[in-house]
Amino acid sequence: MVETARAAQANTKNQILENARQLFAEHGYDGTSIRQLTSSLNITPAALYYHFASKNDVLEGLAAQLHDSSDELLQRISTFDQSTESMREALNQYYDLLADDIQVFRLVWNDAAIQHSPIGQRLRSQARDFYAYLVGPNPSVEDRMRAAGAVGIIRLSLEQRGVDPDKHKEVIVERSFQVMTDL
Questions:
Q1: Calpha distance 146→123 (Å, rounded)
Q2: Do the Cβ atoms of 63 and 108 come closer than 8 Å?
Q3: Tens-of-pLDDT digits for all 183 residues of the chain?
């Protein structure tokens, strides 16, 4: 009985997060109300507040996986050198990270309200740390341009509607790597 209740609570929480993902993408963070979050699920605001303290807490829950995965990526690449093999692997892992949750990444990247939220600030800081790895110490203007191009290829390719991330990964990462290494 207790396990059934816990499963139902987890299911409701996941439904709230998935609903928020869709509504935030469609209306933006500021354009989505608590009423919208609850009415489309046919739950009360009190039920939402049972699981989340605020709309920002919903956003935090939605972005938690991307944040945690980004931390793990940054920890892994902290041991990488600047060799071409390490660079290719870092871009490969970055691709996987974005492919797993491109919707949340798109929200953070495109919604000013989310960018200025605590989770948005943390995710953007992680993105800057990844970029810092790519450009290395004392980067030139060309290094910065290559890194921006490499990251942009991955991000923009994954944002294309209807693109199968698994099918196109190899060609996208390879093109990103070529831009990064100027080959």
A1: 21
A2: yes
A3: 656 656 656 688 999 999 999 999 899 999 999 999 999 899 999 999 999 999 999 999 999 989 999 999 999 999 999 899 999 999 999 999 999 988 888 888 888 888 888 999 999 999 999 999 999 999 999 999 999 999 999 999 998 877 788 899 999 999 999 999 986
| Domains of the chain from N-terminus onward | 1-52 (1.10.10.60), 62-181 (1.10.357)
Q: How many residues does the chain have?
A: 183
Q: Rounded to whole angstroms, how far apart are CA atoms 101 and 61?
A: 13
Cβ-defined contacts of 84-92 (< 8 Å, 24+) = 84/177, 84/181, 87/134, 87/177, 87/180, 87/181, 88/173, 88/177, 90/130, 90/133, 90/134, 91/150, 91/154, 91/173, 91/176, 91/177, 91/180, 92/169, 92/173
